[in-house]
Design brief:
Elements (H helix, E strand, L loop, with lengths): L2 E6 L4 E6 L2 E9 L3 E8 L9 H16 L2 E4 L2 H9 L9
Parallel strand pairs: 4-5
Antiparallel strand pairs: 1-2, 2-3, 3-4
Protein name: N-acetyltransferase domain-containing protein
Pfam families: Acetyltransf_CG
C-alpha cells in the first residue's frame, strides 16, 4: 500500500493519499498551536489502518513544526489515548 503524506496549508489540513483516495485531518493554526478539528477517512480506505497512519503522521508533523496541540477531533483524541507518549504535544 503506497501512500503520500503532506501538510496542505492552502486547504488547512494534513493529507494522506492511499490507493487513489485522500484521508485528511482538518486544522486551525496559530503561531504557537495547531487545533486538530476533524478526521475523514474515505469509506473505501476503512479497516486498513489508514486512520492510524494518518494520525501518527499528523502528530509527527505537529512535533516537527514545534507547535502545541489542541485536540477537538474525537478520532485523534482516541488515538492519543492509546499513545500517551505523545501527550507532551498537548497545549
Amino acid at each position: 500500500m503506497s501512500s503520500d503524506f503532506r501538510d496542505n496549508e492552502e486547504r488547512h489540513r494534513f493529507e494522506l493519499d492511499v490507493e487513489g483516495s485522500t484521508a485528511f485531518v482538518s486544522y486551525r493554526k496559530t503561531p504557537d498551536t495547531i487545533t486538530l478539528v476533524h478526521t475523514v477517512v474515505p469509506p473505501e480506505l476503512g479497516g486498513k489502518g489508514v486512520g492510524s497512519r494518518l494520525a501518527r503522521a499528523t502528530l509527527d508533523a505537529v512535533r516537527a513544526q514545534g507547535r502545541k496541540l489542541i485536540v477537538e477531533c474525537e478520532f485523534i483524541r482516541g488515538y492519543m489515548s492509546k499513545h500517551p507518549e505523545d501527550n507532551d504535544l498537548l497545549a
